[in-house]
Design brief:
By secondary structure, the chain is α+β, with helices and mostly antiparallel strands. Helices cover 19% and strands 51% of the residues.
Protein backbone atom coordinates (compact mmCIF):
# COMPACT_ATOMS: atom_id res chain seq x y z
CA UNK A 1 0.00 0.00 0.00
CA UNK A 2 1.33 3.42 -0.99
CA UNK A 3 0.17 6.82 0.12
CA UNK A 4 0.91 9.78 -2.12
CA UNK A 5 0.11 13.45 -2.11
CA UNK A 6 -2.71 12.69 -4.50
CA UNK A 7 -4.62 11.96 -1.29
CA UNK A 8 -3.92 15.53 -0.23
CA UNK A 9 -5.24 17.12 -3.37
CA UNK A 10 -3.33 19.26 -5.82
CA UNK A 11 -1.04 21.01 -3.41
CA UNK A 12 0.30 23.55 -5.86
CA UNK A 13 -3.28 24.73 -6.49
CA UNK A 14 -4.38 25.17 -2.87
CA UNK A 15 -1.16 26.25 -1.14
CA UNK A 16 -0.80 29.78 -2.36
CA UNK A 17 0.12 30.67 1.22
CA UNK A 18 3.53 28.97 0.75
CA UNK A 19 5.29 30.91 -1.97
CA UNK A 20 8.95 30.02 -2.49
CA UNK A 21 11.90 31.26 -4.47
CA UNK A 22 13.06 29.71 -7.74
CA UNK A 23 15.89 28.03 -5.85
CA UNK A 24 13.57 26.49 -3.27
CA UNK A 25 11.23 25.35 -6.08
CA UNK A 26 14.13 23.47 -7.67
CA UNK A 27 15.00 21.87 -4.33
CA UNK A 28 11.35 20.98 -3.77
CA UNK A 29 11.08 19.32 -7.19
CA UNK A 30 14.35 17.50 -6.59
CA UNK A 31 12.98 16.02 -3.37
CA UNK A 32 9.84 14.78 -5.14
CA UNK A 33 11.89 13.33 -7.97
CA UNK A 34 14.19 11.50 -5.57
CA UNK A 35 11.28 9.99 -3.70
CA UNK A 36 9.41 8.84 -6.80
CA UNK A 37 12.55 7.29 -8.30
CA UNK A 38 13.20 5.04 -5.31
CA UNK A 39 15.41 7.36 -3.20
CA UNK A 40 13.17 8.20 -0.21
CA UNK A 41 16.03 8.79 2.21
CA UNK A 42 17.72 11.25 -0.16
CA UNK A 43 14.33 12.93 -0.56
CA UNK A 44 14.08 13.29 3.22
CA UNK A 45 17.50 14.94 3.37
CA UNK A 46 16.62 17.34 0.52
CA UNK A 47 13.28 18.34 2.02
CA UNK A 48 14.75 18.71 5.51
CA UNK A 49 17.36 21.07 4.09
CA UNK A 50 14.64 23.07 2.36
CA UNK A 51 12.60 23.36 5.58
CA UNK A 52 15.66 24.37 7.59
CA UNK A 53 15.90 27.44 5.36
CA UNK A 54 12.14 28.08 5.34
CA UNK A 55 10.18 26.32 8.15
CA UNK A 56 6.91 27.84 6.91
CA UNK A 57 6.99 25.95 3.61
CA UNK A 58 4.19 23.54 4.45
CA UNK A 59 3.95 21.97 1.02
CA UNK A 60 7.51 20.67 1.53
CA UNK A 61 6.60 19.52 5.06
CA UNK A 62 3.74 17.40 3.77
CA UNK A 63 5.94 15.90 1.08
CA UNK A 64 8.42 15.14 3.85
CA UNK A 65 5.64 13.37 5.77
CA UNK A 66 4.94 11.17 2.74
CA UNK A 67 8.67 10.44 2.39
CA UNK A 68 8.84 9.36 6.02
CA UNK A 69 5.84 7.10 5.37
CA UNK A 70 7.67 5.49 2.45
CA UNK A 71 10.45 4.53 4.89
CA UNK A 72 7.90 3.20 7.43
CA UNK A 73 8.80 5.96 9.91
CA UNK A 74 5.22 6.56 10.98
CA UNK A 75 6.09 8.62 14.06
CA UNK A 76 7.91 11.30 12.06
CA UNK A 77 5.36 11.15 9.24
CA UNK A 78 2.57 11.90 11.72
CA UNK A 79 4.62 14.61 13.42
CA UNK A 80 5.25 16.49 10.16
CA UNK A 81 1.61 16.18 9.07
CA UNK A 82 0.41 17.31 12.50
CA UNK A 83 2.67 20.39 12.31
CA UNK A 84 0.88 21.43 9.12
CA UNK A 85 -2.48 20.76 10.76
CA UNK A 86 -1.52 22.94 13.74
CA UNK A 87 -0.55 25.88 11.56
CA UNK A 88 -3.45 28.39 11.70
CA UNK A 89 -2.54 29.56 8.18
CA UNK A 90 -3.31 26.15 6.66
CA UNK A 91 -6.38 26.44 4.36
CA UNK A 92 -9.45 24.39 5.28
CA UNK A 93 -9.33 22.12 2.16
CA UNK A 94 -5.74 21.23 2.99
CA UNK A 95 -6.63 20.68 6.66
CA UNK A 96 -9.29 18.13 5.69
CA UNK A 97 -6.85 16.30 3.42
CA UNK A 98 -4.24 16.21 6.18
CA UNK A 99 -6.77 14.74 8.61
CA UNK A 100 -7.54 12.01 6.10
CA UNK A 101 -3.82 11.43 5.60
CA UNK A 102 -3.27 11.05 9.36
CA UNK A 103 -6.11 8.55 9.61
CA UNK A 104 -4.61 6.46 6.82
CA UNK A 105 -1.23 6.59 8.55
CA UNK A 106 -2.81 5.30 11.74
CA UNK A 107 -4.41 2.37 9.93
CA UNK A 108 -1.24 1.57 8.01
CA UNK A 109 0.91 1.69 11.14
CA UNK A 110 -1.45 -0.72 12.86
CA UNK A 111 -1.25 -3.11 9.90
CA UNK A 112 2.55 -2.93 9.74
CA UNK A 113 3.48 -2.87 13.42
CA UNK A 114 0.28 -3.62 15.32
CA UNK A 115 1.06 -7.33 15.78
CA UNK A 116 4.80 -7.96 16.12
CA UNK A 117 4.07 -11.52 17.30
CA UNK A 118 1.93 -13.87 15.23
CA UNK A 119 1.03 -17.44 16.11
CA UNK A 120 -0.38 -19.69 13.38
CA UNK A 121 -1.42 -23.22 14.32
CA UNK A 122 -2.21 -25.75 11.60
CA UNK A 123 -3.74 -29.21 11.46
CA UNK A 124 -4.51 -31.74 8.73
CA UNK A 125 -5.76 -35.30 8.48
CA UNK A 126 -5.37 -37.47 5.39
CA UNK A 127 -6.55 -40.81 4.04
CA UNK A 128 -4.11 -42.43 1.62
CA UNK A 129 -3.37 -45.40 -0.60
CA UNK A 130 0.15 -46.43 -1.62
CA UNK A 131 0.72 -49.06 -4.33
CA UNK A 132 4.36 -49.63 -3.31
CA UNK A 133 4.91 -48.82 0.35
CA UNK A 134 8.38 -50.39 0.49
CA UNK A 135 9.55 -49.06 -2.92
CA UNK A 136 10.26 -52.65 -3.98
CA UNK A 137 10.74 -54.06 -7.50
CA UNK A 138 7.90 -55.79 -9.33
CA UNK A 139 9.67 -59.15 -9.51
CA UNK A 140 11.69 -61.12 -6.95
CA UNK A 141 13.89 -62.52 -9.75
CA UNK A 142 16.76 -60.15 -10.56
CA UNK A 143 19.35 -60.19 -13.32
CA UNK A 144 22.26 -62.50 -12.70
CA UNK A 145 20.01 -65.12 -11.16
CA UNK A 146 19.57 -63.33 -7.83
CA UNK A 147 16.36 -64.19 -6.00
CA UNK A 148 14.79 -61.76 -3.52
CA UNK A 149 12.71 -62.73 -0.55
CA UNK A 150 9.07 -62.42 -1.75
CA UNK A 151 8.47 -59.90 1.05
CA UNK A 152 10.90 -57.49 -0.63
CA UNK A 153 8.77 -56.99 -3.75
CA UNK A 154 6.25 -54.18 -4.10
CA UNK A 155 3.61 -54.16 -1.35
CA UNK A 156 0.45 -52.06 -1.42
CA UNK A 157 -1.45 -50.72 1.58
CA UNK A 158 -3.82 -48.00 2.70
CA UNK A 159 -3.38 -45.75 5.68
CA UNK A 160 -3.62 -42.27 7.10
CA UNK A 161 -1.47 -39.25 7.83
CA UNK A 162 -1.86 -36.58 10.48
CA UNK A 163 0.02 -33.30 10.80
CA UNK A 164 -0.07 -30.59 13.45
CA UNK A 165 2.13 -27.55 13.83
CA UNK A 166 2.58 -24.13 15.35
CA UNK A 167 4.38 -21.29 13.58
CA UNK A 168 5.53 -18.15 15.37
CA UNK A 169 6.74 -15.06 13.57
CA UNK A 170 8.14 -11.90 15.13
CA UNK A 171 8.76 -8.65 13.27
CA UNK A 172 10.99 -5.93 14.70
CA UNK A 173 8.97 -2.88 15.85
CA UNK A 174 11.28 -0.47 14.01
CA UNK A 175 12.49 -0.36 10.43
CA UNK A 176 16.13 0.20 9.48
CA UNK A 177 17.72 2.06 6.63
CA UNK A 178 19.61 -0.05 4.11
CA UNK A 179 20.92 2.29 1.44
CA UNK A 180 17.84 3.84 -0.15
CA UNK A 181 15.64 0.93 0.95
CA UNK A 182 13.91 0.11 4.22
CA UNK A 183 14.55 -3.19 5.94
CA UNK A 184 12.46 -5.15 8.43
CA UNK A 185 14.12 -7.76 10.62
CA UNK A 186 12.17 -10.69 11.94
CA UNK A 187 12.41 -14.18 13.37
CA UNK A 188 10.39 -17.26 12.43
CA UNK A 189 10.06 -20.45 14.47
CA UNK A 190 8.13 -23.67 14.04
CA UNK A 191 7.32 -26.87 15.90
CA UNK A 192 5.43 -29.59 14.09
CA UNK A 193 4.71 -33.28 14.04
CA UNK A 194 3.84 -35.61 11.18
CA UNK A 195 2.84 -39.27 11.32
CA UNK A 196 1.95 -41.64 8.49
CA UNK A 197 0.54 -45.01 9.50
CA UNK A 198 -0.36 -48.01 7.36
CA UNK A 199 -3.14 -50.52 7.97
CA UNK A 200 -1.02 -53.70 7.62
CA UNK A 201 2.58 -52.73 6.86
CA UNK A 202 3.27 -51.02 10.18
CA UNK A 203 7.04 -51.52 9.80
CA UNK A 204 6.87 -48.62 7.33
CA UNK A 205 5.00 -46.20 9.58
CA UNK A 206 6.85 -42.88 9.40
CA UNK A 207 7.03 -40.17 12.05
CA UNK A 208 8.74 -36.78 11.84
CA UNK A 209 9.05 -34.29 14.71
CA UNK A 210 10.43 -30.91 13.60
CA UNK A 211 11.82 -27.88 15.42
CA UNK A 212 12.98 -24.93 13.31
CA UNK A 213 13.97 -21.31 13.88
CA UNK A 214 15.87 -18.53 12.17
CA UNK A 215 16.13 -14.82 11.25
CA UNK A 216 14.46 -13.07 8.33
CA UNK A 217 15.08 -9.79 6.56
CA UNK A 218 12.75 -8.03 4.13
CA UNK A 219 14.17 -5.05 2.23
CA UNK A 220 11.51 -2.91 0.59
CA UNK A 221 9.46 -4.75 -1.98
CA UNK A 222 12.48 -5.98 -3.91
CA UNK A 223 14.29 -8.50 -1.72
CA UNK A 224 13.82 -10.88 1.18
CA UNK A 225 16.03 -13.48 2.78
CA UNK A 226 16.13 -15.89 5.67
CA UNK A 227 18.26 -18.53 7.36
CA UNK A 228 16.52 -21.60 8.80
CA UNK A 229 18.06 -23.84 11.46
CA UNK A 230 16.15 -27.10 11.73
CA UNK A 231 16.19 -30.46 13.49
CA UNK A 232 14.05 -33.40 12.35
CA UNK A 233 13.69 -36.55 14.45
CA UNK A 234 12.57 -39.47 12.24
CA UNK A 235 11.04 -42.75 13.29
CA UNK A 236 10.33 -45.77 11.10
CA UNK A 237 8.09 -48.58 12.27
CA UNK A 238 7.69 -46.60 15.49
CA UNK A 239 11.42 -47.00 16.24
CA UNK A 240 14.10 -44.30 16.17
CA UNK A 241 15.55 -43.96 12.68
CA UNK A 242 17.62 -40.79 12.36
CA UNK A 243 18.18 -37.18 13.37
CA UNK A 244 18.56 -34.65 10.55
CA UNK A 245 20.20 -31.33 11.47
CA UNK A 246 20.16 -28.65 8.78
CA UNK A 247 20.99 -25.05 7.92
CA UNK A 248 19.09 -23.57 4.97
CA UNK A 249 19.68 -19.99 3.76
CA UNK A 250 17.42 -18.52 1.07
CA UNK A 251 17.34 -15.26 -0.89
CA UNK A 252 14.54 -13.98 -3.16
CA UNK A 253 14.55 -11.03 -5.58
CA UNK A 254 11.41 -9.48 -6.99
CA UNK A 255 11.52 -9.12 -10.78
CA UNK A 256 8.33 -7.04 -10.97
CA UNK A 257 4.85 -7.91 -12.23
CA UNK A 258 4.45 -10.79 -9.79
CA UNK A 259 7.68 -12.58 -10.75
CA UNK A 260 10.59 -13.49 -8.50
CA UNK A 261 13.88 -15.36 -8.50
CA UNK A 262 15.07 -17.45 -5.55
CA UNK A 263 18.49 -18.88 -4.70
CA UNK A 264 18.75 -21.27 -1.77
CA UNK A 265 21.20 -23.71 -0.24
CA UNK A 266 21.08 -26.48 2.34
CA UNK A 267 23.56 -28.29 4.54
CA UNK A 268 22.25 -31.39 6.35
CA UNK A 269 23.88 -33.85 8.73
CA UNK A 270 21.95 -37.12 8.61
CA UNK A 271 22.76 -39.19 11.70
CA UNK A 272 21.18 -42.66 11.67
CA UNK A 273 20.45 -44.61 14.86
CA UNK A 274 20.16 -48.28 13.87
CA UNK A 275 23.28 -50.40 13.53
CA UNK A 276 22.27 -51.57 10.05
CA UNK A 277 21.96 -47.94 8.91
CA UNK A 278 25.27 -46.60 10.22
CA UNK A 279 26.76 -46.60 6.73
CA UNK A 280 24.04 -44.16 5.66
CA UNK A 281 25.14 -41.44 8.11
CA UNK A 282 26.13 -38.57 5.84
CA UNK A 283 26.65 -34.91 5.06
CA UNK A 284 24.22 -33.69 2.38
CA UNK A 285 24.68 -30.38 0.51
CA UNK A 286 22.57 -28.73 -2.17
CA UNK A 287 22.04 -25.44 -3.97
CA UNK A 288 18.96 -24.47 -5.97
CA UNK A 289 17.70 -21.80 -8.33
CA UNK A 290 14.00 -21.27 -9.03
CA UNK A 291 11.70 -18.82 -10.77
CA UNK A 292 8.06 -18.14 -9.93
CA UNK A 293 5.50 -15.88 -11.53
CA UNK A 294 1.84 -14.89 -11.41
CA UNK A 295 -0.18 -14.64 -14.62
CA UNK A 296 -3.77 -14.37 -15.87
CA UNK A 297 -4.70 -11.67 -13.36
CA UNK A 298 -2.89 -13.59 -10.60
CA UNK A 299 -5.12 -16.64 -11.06
CA UNK A 300 -2.27 -18.73 -12.50
CA UNK A 301 1.00 -19.37 -10.63
CA UNK A 302 3.91 -21.03 -12.42
CA UNK A 303 7.23 -22.16 -11.00
CA UNK A 304 10.31 -23.95 -12.25
CA UNK A 305 13.80 -24.60 -10.98
CA UNK A 306 16.93 -26.70 -10.80
CA UNK A 307 18.95 -28.11 -7.90
CA UNK A 308 22.43 -29.60 -7.62
CA UNK A 309 23.23 -31.89 -4.69
CA UNK A 310 25.87 -34.15 -3.24
CA UNK A 311 25.93 -36.53 -0.29
CA UNK A 312 29.01 -37.93 1.42
CA UNK A 313 28.20 -41.03 3.49
CA UNK A 314 30.26 -43.30 5.75
CA UNK A 315 29.90 -46.11 3.20
CA UNK A 316 30.79 -45.05 -0.31
CA UNK A 317 27.91 -46.99 -1.87
CA UNK A 318 25.55 -44.51 -0.19
CA UNK A 319 27.54 -41.44 -1.31
CA UNK A 320 26.02 -39.79 -4.36
CA UNK A 321 25.65 -36.60 -6.34
CA UNK A 322 23.34 -35.37 -9.04
CA UNK A 323 20.78 -32.85 -10.12
CA UNK A 324 17.04 -32.26 -10.05
CA UNK A 325 14.77 -29.99 -12.03
CA UNK A 326 11.06 -29.34 -11.78
CA UNK A 327 8.12 -27.39 -13.22
CA UNK A 328 4.78 -26.75 -11.60
CA UNK A 329 1.65 -24.66 -11.74
CA UNK A 330 -1.54 -23.82 -9.90
CA UNK A 331 -4.66 -22.40 -11.56
CA UNK A 332 -7.61 -20.91 -9.72
CA UNK A 333 -10.64 -22.40 -11.49
CA UNK A 334 -13.56 -21.54 -9.23
CA UNK A 335 -14.10 -19.50 -6.08
CA UNK A 336 -11.84 -21.09 -3.49
CA UNK A 337 -10.88 -23.92 -5.85
CA UNK A 338 -7.53 -24.65 -7.54
CA UNK A 339 -6.09 -27.27 -9.85
CA UNK A 340 -2.37 -27.93 -9.55
CA UNK A 341 0.37 -30.04 -11.12
CA UNK A 342 4.07 -30.60 -10.57
CA UNK A 343 6.63 -32.70 -12.45
CA UNK A 344 10.21 -33.37 -11.37
CA UNK A 345 13.22 -35.33 -12.61
CA UNK A 346 16.01 -36.33 -10.22
CA UNK A 347 19.21 -38.06 -11.37
CA UNK A 348 21.60 -39.60 -8.83
CA UNK A 349 24.99 -41.20 -9.42
CA UNK A 350 26.47 -43.26 -6.56
CA UNK A 351 30.17 -43.79 -5.87
CA UNK A 352 30.79 -47.20 -4.32
CA UNK A 353 29.98 -50.58 -5.82
CA UNK A 354 26.71 -52.22 -4.82
CA UNK A 355 26.85 -55.51 -2.94
CA UNK A 356 26.25 -58.55 -5.24
CA UNK A 357 26.40 -56.35 -8.37
CA UNK A 358 29.97 -55.03 -8.27
CA UNK A 359 29.11 -51.70 -9.93
CA UNK A 360 27.81 -48.34 -8.63
CA UNK A 361 24.14 -47.52 -8.81
CA UNK A 362 22.70 -44.94 -11.25
CA UNK A 363 19.07 -43.93 -11.10
CA UNK A 364 16.61 -41.32 -12.34
CA UNK A 365 13.37 -40.65 -10.50
CA UNK A 366 10.46 -39.19 -12.48
CA UNK A 367 7.66 -37.83 -10.32
CA UNK A 368 4.32 -36.42 -11.46
CA UNK A 369 1.77 -34.93 -9.08
CA UNK A 370 -1.77 -33.89 -10.04
CA UNK A 371 -4.34 -32.50 -7.67
CA UNK A 372 -7.20 -30.22 -6.77
CA UNK A 373 -8.01 -28.22 -3.66
CA UNK A 374 -10.98 -26.30 -2.35
CA UNK A 375 -11.19 -23.88 0.57
CA UNK A 376 -14.61 -23.66 2.17
CA UNK A 377 -15.93 -20.15 2.79
CA UNK A 378 -19.14 -20.84 4.69
CA UNK A 379 -20.80 -23.38 6.94
CA UNK A 380 -19.24 -25.59 9.60
CA UNK A 381 -16.17 -26.17 7.40
CA UNK A 382 -15.56 -22.44 6.96
CA UNK A 383 -11.82 -21.77 6.36
CA UNK A 384 -11.01 -25.49 6.12
CA UNK A 385 -9.43 -26.84 2.96
CA UNK A 386 -9.83 -30.16 1.17
CA UNK A 387 -7.19 -31.41 -1.24
CA UNK A 388 -6.94 -34.57 -3.36
CA UNK A 389 -3.58 -35.57 -4.85
CA UNK A 390 -2.44 -38.31 -7.21
CA UNK A 391 1.31 -38.93 -7.35
CA UNK A 392 3.05 -41.20 -9.85
CA UNK A 393 6.72 -42.18 -9.29
CA UNK A 394 8.77 -44.03 -11.92
CA UNK A 395 12.29 -44.88 -10.80
CA UNK A 396 14.69 -45.99 -13.52
CA UNK A 397 18.01 -47.57 -12.50
CA UNK A 398 20.90 -49.50 -14.01
CA UNK A 399 20.32 -52.17 -11.33
CA UNK A 400 16.89 -53.80 -11.44
CA UNK A 401 16.81 -54.05 -7.63
CA UNK A 402 16.17 -50.30 -7.60
CA UNK A 403 13.67 -50.10 -10.45
CA UNK A 404 10.12 -49.55 -9.30
CA UNK A 405 6.84 -47.78 -9.94
CA UNK A 406 4.71 -46.25 -7.24
CA UNK A 407 1.25 -44.66 -7.24
CA UNK A 408 -0.04 -42.71 -4.26
CA UNK A 409 -3.50 -41.22 -3.71
CA UNK A 410 -4.16 -38.89 -0.80
CA UNK A 411 -7.22 -36.93 0.32
CA UNK A 412 -6.59 -34.28 2.99
CA UNK A 413 -8.72 -32.05 5.16
CA UNK A 414 -6.82 -29.31 6.95
CA UNK A 415 -6.77 -25.79 8.26
CA UNK A 416 -4.31 -23.05 9.16
CA UNK A 417 -5.58 -20.70 11.87
Amino acid sequence: MRLTLAALGSFSAVCAFAQSTASSDDQYRQGLYQRETGQPYSAIETLQSLLAADPSLNRARLELAVSYYRTLNFAKAKAEAQAVLNDPKTPEPVRLSVLSFLKQLELEEKAQFGKPHRFEPSFSLSALYDSNVNAGPDSALLSGGLQLDPGSTAKADSGYAVQAGLNHSWTAPVAVRMGESTGRFGWNSQVSGYYKGYTRLSDYNLGVATVATGPTLVVGQGWRGNVNFQADRLTLGDKALALYSSISPSSTWSLGKGSELTVDAQWVYRNFDRDQDQGRTSHYNSVGLSYGGLFNQNRLALQGGVRLFSESAKESRFSNSGYEYFVGGRQNVWTGGDLFARASWRHSGYEGDEVFFGIPRRETEQRLELGASHQYQAGWLDKWQTAATLTRVHNQANLDLYRYDRDMVQVTLGRSY
